[in-house]
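re: ur msg from earlier - yeah i can do the magnesium ion complex, just paste it... oh wait u already did. ok heres what im feeding in:
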Amino acid sequence: DQLIAIFSKLEKHYRDMQDVEFTIENGKLYILQTRSGKRTAPASIKVAIDLVSEKLITKKEALLRIEPEKLDQLLHPTLDPKAKFKYKLIATGLPASPGAGVGEVVFNAETAVKWKEAGKKVILVRAETSPEDISGMNAAQGILTARGGMTSHAAVVARGMGKCCVSGCESIAVSEIEKKFRIGDLIVSEGDLITLDGSTGEVFLGEVPTVNPELSGYFGTIMEWSDKYKKLGVRTNADTPRDAQVARDFGATGIGLCRTEHMFFQADRIFAVRQMILADTAEQRKVALAKIFPMQKNDFLELFKIMKGFPVKIRLLDPPLHEFLPKEKADIEALAREMGITVEKLQDKIDSLHEQNPMMGHRGCRLGISFPEIFEMQVRAIAEAACEVIKKNNVIASEAKQSLIPEIMIPLIGEFNEFKWLKDRLVPVIEDTIKKYGVKMTYEIGTMIEIPRAALTADAIATEADFFSFGTNDLTQMTYGFSRDDAGKFLKDYTDKKILAEDPFKTLDTVGVGRLMKMAVDLGRSTKKKLHIGICGEQGGDPATIKYCHQIGLNYVSCSPYRVPIARLAAAQAAIEADK
Ligand code: PEP
Ligand code: MG
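and the outut:
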């Protein structure tokens, strides 16, 4: 009774869950020390909510006590607790990366990749992993290693990939050559099914059923409170109906970036896309575009349906065209046959599209200026899809309580005239479509701000643009002059040597890139007071970046679907801290 009374007193005094050390000697109780207890992600949520219901802390304090990044542990599938005990627990290692993984055992990266391509689910088992295993880890549902701790290669890489991992599972003896591992008398061979629980470190024989993350309960309460306090909207970057659905389930209230080029890579359309790129005349290009049009329109219809009236920002084609071209000999031959030209002629054309510095080359709005028919096709597909939805009585708009407003985003603008020239060509396409369908539709045409010159001239651009969205991947690349594709090789030296505190492609460089953003916000709103502004670079899902976005007055952040809950909490924390 005395101990429980002291526990309660300490918890009330510190207004937090305590980790208390005590001893009893000769019938006398001694308290040795107390401190705030360490906690896992689910515990941090439960403790915060319990403290609120005991009236020890406020809801705002509760939200500030949860680390947004930790929510990641709660967003992955887990083993069905009701089913798990029916399966044979064969080993336990370290819970190196959360989530559940089920698959057939393979012992090297090459097999993992091959089997995945053949449609199988695999678990990569190694004595320990090294950088050569990355492709195999990527292909696997989960990773099991016999050696290595919580910061081993396997553990760190798996956490980065969001894959489950059990490391340091010392009771298994792995023979990569014989393609089997042994635990006592039990032998598990290549192709046998196992299940990993990356949150507990358990390894089961067979395929244990999994359950999707529980987004209601305590988690739901935290999200509800977050939404109450946050000022920033949270949208998602989604290119497929599946991503859009995941993000909706996680509470995204719009798509902040749909990269349309990802829709071009699908096997059934890449052929037509290549014909479009390699066409010699606008007429030939239009023939190829006509093949792509119905597929694009269908993509947008799907997205609009899932988003149920929530805003969808669609970005027109961005990357340099040669990214779509065939590289394998067999693909080049097949394309030449289809196009009725020689392999040599096709190869010449492919070579002519080569660029020394493609990231600063013929991409984004520059493509639209050279080949306006590409952007026109995309905009017609967006407008027709939106008109069809609206014509069907706008039924799918119910959830957002507003009518569908397509938002068309032009990439890589650096100069007012680029934007104006393209907008003048795209508006008539949309107006024609609206007339054809006989509906009332509002639409917006805006731009990415991802080139420093766009930020510097944002007041002029805002006279024509309906919105801005910061593309901080390119804006960081071009402000720092760090290639976003190659800088990873040396940025670690910068962070290790404390020249930079953070990788600026992960956490926004508020001092430099952030200053450009603030300038663009202020300049843009000096011409258009209510200009709607967001961010859609990778940093948009990072809590420190979200805080800065709140401070400079953005309207929303957009991030990958699995980061949406993290962004909701971080946005609430930013608002609460700013009010203090
Ligand atoms: C960006 O540059 O930040 C952006 C979102 O566009 P992408 O990554 O497609 O270049
Ligand atoms: Mg970009």
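cool cool. Residues 257, 259, 318, 450, 471-474, 536-537 surround phosphoenolpyruvate (ligand 1) (CB under 6 Å). ping me if u need the other ligands too
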